[in-house]
Amino acid sequence: MAQSKTATHAPRMGLCMSFSMREFQDMQTLSPLWRSTFRSTVRIPPRLKGRPMNDPTALDTTGSLGCGDCSGDAGGDVHRSRQVSVPYYVKALAMALPAFCFGLTLRGWIDFLSHIPSGRTDFRHLYATAYMVRTGHGSEIYSYLAQKLFQNRLISPANLALPFNHLAYESLIFLPFSYLSYTHAYLLWLGLNLLMLGICFFLLRSDLEPLRSAWLWLPIAAFVGFIPLSAAMEQGQDSILLLTLLTVAYVSLRSGKELIAGLVLGMGMFKFQLVLPIVALFLLWRKWRVVAGFTMAALTCISMSIVITGVEHFRDYGTMLMSMSSGLTDELQTLYGVPPAQMANLRGLIFMLTDGHFSSLSQTIQILSASLLVVFITARFGPTESSDQLLLGVIVASLVSYHFLLHDMSILFLPIAVMLSTNIEAETEGKGCRKWLFRSSAFLFAAMAWRMFPATIFFLMCVPLALFWICSLSAGAARRSDCVVRSAAASFASVA
After folding, report:
1. Closest to 200 measured CA to CA, from 222, 215, 217
2. Same-domain check for residues 232 and 310
3. Where is average pLDDT lowest: 71-80, 125-134, 265-274?
4. Cα 227 from chain centroid?
5. Coil, helix or strand for 355?
């Protein structure tokens, strides 16, 4: 049933009990017996009890994981008009947690400042690779010896080089930076990261509006206090660029522009280990326009990479990836900087719990099996709205990604922030699934403070991440169940 303008909602994720004006009027025609049955089946929020069915002020009953109406309406950038009631302890935590996390990031920056002039950042290999491509050495970017030579010559001497392990097309993004000195290029990239965060804030401003009910500055404080964002900026990583692309894709899906969302996702192939699981879910959900857009963009990115390196040397990239995964030894962990103990995903958790007890092949099979199980459970019980699916897809990609370090967790800001905002009222209304979704979001946000502890136990961050996934999936399943009841009621009303 079409939704009237008086009941338009921004897309949100969670339980869906969003009734349109037409449906409320239809319910007036129901028999007293059916109305009684309907009221006993559907949980009516406290603010609706005692109001007549045709009261237009009682229309917004949506609680969410990210999307609004189950009729498929894409919604728009509409702010919530009503004031959300927030318990006192939520308001206290809303001010304390971002402040505490900001203190940790500030301390991190103070400790890290000395590393910038010396070139001991991850930006080192992005800068050197762009210079190599610009000067005609694109075929050597996957050669460890060539990387070490250029990094030591351009930036600073070091015993170990940082191998470039992304698709070659990404070097074109950093090509203009190679005309500057390393320090100036780093500072410019830092400024662009801040600009991209500003773009994300602008695009999500309506989704984050309910956070203001807890604290006026909470939407901004959430950005400032999210530790992975600071880690990405410190290291000069490209994780915030991927977050920006995912945010644009989310807004596009919310507006019903699935092809554009797919194209934007394809641009993120420089971190294909995070993008491919998301697209695999959209394929299982039969979102063909998203998959088509992604395929076009991904093939373009791969083709550009082959042109840069040449076919023969592009095979070296595959060899490197194999040595970083199934062929990863203790020596290669140090060389590539990808120790599983520092990965907050299923790979890190399973690898560390089974290390020394199972062979490398057995560990790989266990990781692959667990990852496939998560993907297929999500595909079976996930939400139906495309923008909801992207949020859940980001969580799943974080869990099953083969490489997932602290700075990679920047992409989790999108689902965490949206779900915190759209479920903040659940603490007052007492809705089980939404309440636990809100709490798991807050817990994961706060758990980023795990950075204070030794990096060798960072793999335990997979536990709050898995809890976040379970709560998101449960809320989505409950939302679908409520939508079935709502659709049945609406159909009965139209027949009556």
Report:
1. 222
2. yes
3. 71-80
4. 14
5. strand
Distances (CA, A) of 379 to 49, 64, 199, 278, 318: 36, 19, 30, 11, 29
What mean pLDDT comes out for the span 196-209? 94
Closest CA to 189 of 203, 170, 205: 170
Q: What is the pLDDT of residues 223-244, one digit of tens each?
A: 999 999 999 999 999 999 999 9
Question: Is 98 in the same domain as 71?
Answer: no
Please state the φ and ψ torsions of residue 358, each to the nearest 5 degrees: -130, 160
Distance of CA 314 to the CA centre of its chain: 29
Do 153 and 31 share a structural domain?
no
Q: Which helix (H) or strand (E) holds 200?
A: helix 182-203
Residue 131's domain spans which residues?
A: 88-325+336-482
Let me know: does 142 contact 164? Beta carbons within 8 Å.
Answer: yes
Domain match, 51 and 115 both: no
Summarised one tens digit per residue, pLDDT across range 154-200 is 998 888 888 898 999 999 999 999 999 999 999 999 999 999 999 99
Structure tokens at 429: 């209304």
Residues 107 and 26 in one domain: no
pLDDT band at 62 (very low <50, low <70, confident <90, very high): very low
Strand-pairing partners, residue 358, are: 355
C-alpha 148/C-alpha 193 separation (Å) is: 26
In this prediction, residue 485 carries a pLDDT of 54
Which tokens in the block code for residue 18? 């969003």
